[in-house]
């Protein structure tokens, strides 16, 4: 493994097959929740992958049988209180999406257990997404009290259609991996416990393919996502505007208290 990955703390790396790089989300004891360190690394890793000549494909998974449990509440609270943190995390959230879209290597995700937050961004923006049947996919933004920014506006309508995107994003309705495949949100589903081996087999095939042909096909197809860039930019700005308001305070409190939120009945906007 080259030194370009030595600086990462929350992301671990392996080489499970020839010319396949394995990227592992790893926050021990927290179901790979996205803390400040992991959020920054998820934004940056795709530049290093893009520039690495050793690998032709990437496999993304979570450690310990879970993909990612979403954003760490300590990070969320810091975003609400500090402008510098808010500006930094906004840039990371933007870079995570665009760097992954522009990464020239095909990415395959293997989602088991919860898939929420910034981890879900990478899981669904992967070129091939594999989800175990009982994987629990949730875009939790409106439950937290902020707009569905991150990746939602750039890819959900394209994957599963506007009607389904609005239903799941507005209501924060969870999806199983099986339901996600049925509506087209993920590429493929598999039996529980088999996401890794299913995704690895796909990554091996991609790594053995014609490198330029695969990369250029990805680039051309991802122009559909680039066309949605203005919608994504607006959604991300509105999400971070929400971090300055009162609704996110109730969202955070309700999550800590493990109860349903009680948002105000009307909005000033």
Task: Tell me what the structure shows.
With 269 residues, the chain is of the alpha/beta class. It has a single domain (3-257), classed as 2-enoyl-CoA Hydratase, Chain A, domain 1 (Alpha-Beta Complex), CATH 3.90.226.10. The chain is built from 13 helices and 10 strands. The strands form 2 sheets. It has a 6-stranded mixed sheet, sandwiched between helices. Strands 4-6-8-9 form a 4-stranded mixed sheet. The longest helix is centred in the middle third of the chain and has 20 residues, at 83-102. The radius of gyration is 18 Å and the shape is globular.
Total helices: the number is 13
- Label the structural class: alpha/beta
What CATH architecture would you give? Answer: Alpha-Beta Complex
Sheet-strand content, in percent, reads 15-25%
* Helicity level: 40-55%
Tally of strands = 10
Q: Layout of helices and strands, plus pairs?
A:
Elements: E1 11-17, E2 20-25, H1 36-51, E3 57-62, E4 68-69, H2 73-81, H3 83-102, E5 107-111, E6 114-116, H4 117-125, E7 128-132, E8 136-138, H5 141-144, H6 152-160, H7 162-171, E9 175-176, H8 177-183, E10 188-190, H9 195-208, H10 211-221, H11 223-227, H12 229-242, H13 247-257
Parallel strand pairs: 2-3, 3-5, 4-6, 5-7, 6-8, 7-10
Antiparallel strand pairs: 1-2, 8-9
